[in-house]
Write a structure and sequence with these properties.
34% of the residues lie in helices and 25% in strands. It is built from seven helices and ten strands. Helix 2 runs parallel beside helix 4. The protein is globular. The structure holds adenosine-5'-diphosphate (2 copies). One adenosine-5'-diphosphate binds next to loops. GO terms for molecular function: ATP binding.
Length: 228
């Protein structure tokens, strides 16, 4: 679990208006923070800087008090789920979920791999489908496999970039409940990007509202409801 601190973070692409403009934000250990804002407001860019896929132009990023601006993604120990998650079509659900364990620098023996895959699969209700290939799964099940892959390792934090935006409304509601339950169960610090107001107001402990790259508000959903 990790504490994530952003201090005056700026991102400029070329010399235009900054994509992220002087954002300061503290995320506590175990906290579930939703990053919300219209398209183009800088949400993805901010998430990608946290995970290390995008350089920070100005400002400082700390994970557990350590400055990580120059640390490569694999050394940050964060786990990200993308909007367009790519599963390996030739691998079973089991092997898709196990994949990060096989890549990892620590060595996991097969007993450990199977214990972890089964724990993740159980949490995501995929236990019955471990031997299937992605082509034989529903959209929601595929999204769950992508999440399984993110939670199978001990990451310091989970980062979600609009993970439900490709699902229909019914499935989205269902997955939302599952994500909230999973986050509570694991208690891992989570940053979740969405442009969906319902998700923003129902899912997390805190909501960070971005507008044109700047942080407009950072408060609990209850506090935001009370705003005029
Ligand atoms: P959001 O995730 O809120 O939709 P983004 O972080 O994707 O917003 O984008 C924020 C701004 O930065 C937008 O104006 C977008 O066009 C710009 N932007 C994002 N990625 C790049 C890039 N690789 N090169 C140039 N501009 C970019
Ligand atoms: P989202 O808003 O869901 O983050 P986008 O469709 O804005 O996604 O961006 C998809 C990809 O294109 C990202 O990798 C982003 O960095 C890149 N991108 C976005 N805007 C620009 C831009 N103006 N110039 C170059 N790349 C961009």
């Amino acid at each position: 679990m990790a504490e994530i601190d952003l201090k005056n973070i700026v991102k400029r692409y070329g010399d235009g208006f900054p994509a992220v403009n002087d954002v300061s934000l503290s995320i506590d250990n175990g906290e579930f923070v939703i990053l919300v804002g219209p398209s183009g407001s800088g949400k993805s860019t901010l998430l990608r800087m946290i995970v290390g896929l995008e350089d920070i132009t100005e400002g400082e990023l700390f994970i557990d008090g350590k400055r990580v601006n120059d640390l490569p993604p694999r050394d940050r120990d964060l786990s990200m789920v993308f909007q367009n998650y790519a599963l390996y079509p030739h691998l079973t659900v089991y092997e898709n979920i196990a994949f990060p364990l096989r890549l990892n620098k620590e060595h996991y023996d097969e007993n450990e791999v199977s214990a972890r895959v089964e724990r993740a699969a159980k949490m995501l209700e995929l236990g019955e489908h471990l031997q299937r290939k992605p082509a034989n799964l529903s959209g929601g099940q595929r999204q769950r496999v992508a999440m399984g892959r993110a939670i199978v390792r001990d990451a310091k934090a989970f980062l979600f970039d609009e993970p439900l935006s490709n699902l229909d409304a019914k499935l989205r509601g269902q997955m939302r409940t599952e994500i909230a339950r999973m986050q509570r169960q694991l208690g891992v610090t989570t940053v979740y990007v969405t442009h969906d107001q319902t998700e923003a107001m129902t899912l997390g402990d805190k909501v960070a509202v971005l507008k044109r790259g700047a942080l407009q508000q950072y408060a609990s959903p209850q506090e935001l409801y009370r705003e005029p």
